[in-house]
Amino acid sequence: MNQVLILTRNILTEQDIQQKLQLLNYEVYCSASFFEQCTQQSQTLEFFRFFQYVILSESICESEVTELLPILQQQSVQVIRKVEAKVTELDHQYLEDNLIQAIISNEDSIDELRECLFALKRTTQQTDDTFENRKFIQLSDKVSLIRPSALREKRPNPEENYQYLEVIHHLSQTEMKILSILIHAGSSVVTRETICHQIWNEEVNKSHLASLSSTITRIKSKFENTSLANKAIQTLWGKGYRLNPELLDRIQNNEAINRIVSNG
């Protein structure tokens, strides 16, 4: 059985979500006192090792969430933000930065919660030692950002091509599909809803959007050790996503890379 910890200011507001999780056979522990102890850092962090998921209630304000996230980042837990209805720009930023792994609400059905938590569980089970143990060297993001334009525009060497080919080879099927959608869009922005619909081919819900944000973050992370000057995928708040022009140009002008992406 998987254990879920709900951190809240008022345990009465969590009854609905707690019941749904229990129907899915999750063991749920809901606490307001532990939340207070966490913010005061007076409680041993060993307590977190009993849980696979930590849900931050909508009763916890954004500033408190900001204080909690560095503590939770040190733990082996999946962090989920629960909202009443509206997902804020800051919530999206947390997803993009991989500080939280999903967003849920009381309005979510049991089916949506089931699929969301199952997707998070699969994410934690996927490891890629080969990808993590790469041997090539990469400059830091700051150095890459300030290097002269002439260096960015020079002809890529074989080592750089290898870096991109290796990343693309290690993309999951969903990650590759998202990349393909953005490539076909060229320099245009693709809405989150459009991408979700093309991936899942059904009505878009919060679970899909949360899963998309998590997947976009993983794609960005995988491209971090390439020579890209900026993030592989650009996020335009309130609009959607667009592929980094440098990455788009590299894929379109490299036959080997373009062939792999086109074949999915």
Task: Summarize the structure in words.
The protein is an alpha/beta fold and 264 residues long. It folds into 2 domains: 3-125, Rossmann fold (3-Layer(aba) Sandwich); 130-263, Arc Repressor Mutant, subunit A, CATH 1.10.10. The protein is 52% helix and 12% strand. It contains 14 helices and 7 strands. It has helices at residues 15-23, 33-40, 62-73, 89-96, 110-125, 129-132, 141-146, 149-153, 158-169, 173-185, 192-200, 206-222, 245-253, 255-263; strands at 3-7, 27-31, 53-56, 78-83, 102-105, 233-236, 240-243. It has a 5-stranded parallel beta sheet, sandwiched between helices. Helix 5 runs parallel beside helix 12. The radius of gyration is 20 Å and the shape is elongated. The two termini are 36 Å apart.
List keywords for this structure.
transcription, single chain, 2 domains, Arc Repressor Mutant, subunit A, 52% helix, 264 residues, WH-like_DNA-bd_sf, alpha/beta, Helix-turn-helix domain-containing protein, five-stranded parallel β-sheet, two-stranded antiparallel sheet, Rossmann fold, transcription regulation
Secondary structure category? alpha/beta
**Can you tell me the CATH topology of the largest domain?**
Arc Repressor Mutant, subunit A
CATH class of the largest domain: Mainly Alpha
| Total individual domains | 2
Q: In what range is the share of β-strand residues?
A: 5-15%
CATH architecture of the largest domain: Orthogonal Bundle
Globally, the shape reads elongated
- Which blocks of ≥5 consecutive residues have pLDDT under 50? 127-155
**N-end to C-end Cα span:** 36 Å
Task: Please report the number of helical segments.
Answer: 14
Note the run of SSEs as H and E: EHEHEHEHEHHHHHHHHEEHH
Output mean pLDDT: 77
CATH-assigned homologous superfamily of the largest domain = Winged helix-like DNA-binding domain superfamily/Winged helix DNA-binding domain
Largest sheet: 5 strands, parallel
Q: Roughly how much helix do the residues carry, as a percent range?
A: 40-55%
Please provide the count of β strands: 7
What radius of gyration results from the CA coordinates?
20 Å
Order of strands side by side in the largest beta sheet? 2-1-3-4-5
